[in-house]
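Standup notes
- DV: blocked on the single-chain target, sequence here:
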Amino acid sequence: MKPDPELYDYWPYKNRPKIVWPEGKKVAFWVAPNIEFYELNPPVNPQRKAWPRPYPDITPYSYRDHGNRVGHWRLMDIMDEFGIRGSVSLSVAMCQHHPEIVEACQNRNWEFFSHGIYNTRYIYGMDEDQERSILEDSIKTVEAATGQRIKGYLAPALTHTEKTIDLLAEYDFWYSCDLFQDDQPQPLITSHSDKKLISMPYSLEVNDHYAFNVYGQSARQYADLLKRQFDQLLEEGAESGTVMCIPLHAYLIGRSHRIGPFREVLDYITAHKDDVWVTTAAEIAEFYRETYYDTAVEDIKKYKKGVSV
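- DV (later): unblocked, structure below
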C-alpha cells in the first residue's frame, strides 16, 4: 500500500496559467444528477454494509426509490425550463432496470458517465480483473443503450482501489469526479503518459446529500449555499476560469418542498448569461484537454522539486 496515492501534484491556486472558457466565459457550470439503483439485497461486501439494518431494510431502500419514480421527472422539468443538459452520474444497471429514465435523458441530449453498476456494489477489496470488468461493463452497457462512449467516472458510493485512477486512463476516460482537491480541472498522474486524464471539479460541499443528510440544511439554506458558491467562483473566474458543479440526487432535491428553492438557484445562475458557460462535464474536459492540459502540465513542473512529470 502506498503511503501517498500520488494521484496529483500540489499546484497553488494563484498565478496558474489563465483559463478562459469558450466565448470568454468565467465559470463553466454543470449539473450532475446521480441516477442510481440501490438493491434491496445486494451481494455482501466485507468492508461495508449496504443497509444499516437486517434484511429487508425497506425504509432506506424505498426512500431512495422515490428518486426513480418521482424525483427525476420533477428535476428534468426544472432543468428543461432553463435549458440545462445534465451530466448523468449513472448506475449503469439503470439501463436494464429503468430504461425509461435513460431514454428521457438521452432525448434531452444529456451526457452519461459511469457511477458503477449499482450504488450498492462497492469497489473496496476488488482485484484488478474485477475492477476492469466494472469499467468494461460500464462502457459496453451505456454505449448499447445510448450510443454514447462514456468519458467520465465517479466510483460507486465513492469506493476505490489503488488502481482505479490508473485504470481510468488506460480505458481512455477523460475525467474523474472522485477527487475534490480543486476548483479548476487538473491533470492527474497515471502510468499512461499518452493519456490526458483530468480531475473534474465535482463537489462534496455543495452536494445535496451532504447539505440535507449530513449538514441538516433546509431547502432555503441549500439554495443560499449554492448561490454563494456561484458568486465566489464567478468573482475568481474573472482572473482565471473556474468550474462549478451541482451534484444532485433526485430522492433528495426532487422532493416537492425542495424543488422550488432549487429552481430559484438555476434561475439565478443562468441569468448571468455573459459570464457562465452552461455545459456538460465531457464538454469541459474536451475543451480543457485540447486548450490547457499541456500548459498545465508544464506549469505544475515548477512545483515538482526536481521530479519530472
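- Follow-up: The chain has eleven helices and nine strands.
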